[in-house]
Design brief:
Length: 121
């Protein structure tokens, strides 16, 4: 798996919006494949993002809704965005609260498509 190319895409994503502080690609089993930005324990955050995804999937299953397309959580001080990369893992971003929800959504979807090309089954 060409992680250098994924790293490059994550760097470009962060450059597109200064409000994005951290982004990472996490495998379906919670392993961090690549990340860009300051995080003291990337593996711990990868596990957190996996758990967030699992909890949301359980909720949707109970409600008999379809699969997750996007998770967006906003607080007073920041936001978390989590998007599946098809069935290969997911893209997680931490951003400041200043970012517009639509902007982060558009940017992350573009990069999900780019990153998916570098993830192999």
């Amino acid at each position: 798996m060409p992680t250098a190319k994924i790293d490059e895409q994550l760097s470009l994503l962060c450059q597109r919006a200064s409000e994005i502080k951290l982004c990472m690609v996490v495998s379906s089993d919670g392993l961090v494949i690549a990340h860009h930005g300051n995080v003291s324990e990337p593996d711990l955050f990868g596990a957190y993002f996996l758990e967030l995804n699992v909890v949301c999937e359980k909720i949707l299953t109970e409600l008999k809704y379809e699969s997750i397309e996007e998770i967006y959580i906003r607080s007073k001080s920041g936001a978390v965005t989590l998007l599946p990369i098809f069935d290969k893992g997911f893209l997680a971003c931490l951003s400041s609260a200043d970012i517009n929800a639509g902007k982060i959504q558009i940017l992350t979807w573009k990069y999900v498509n780019k990153i998916s090309e570098y993830l192999v089954d």
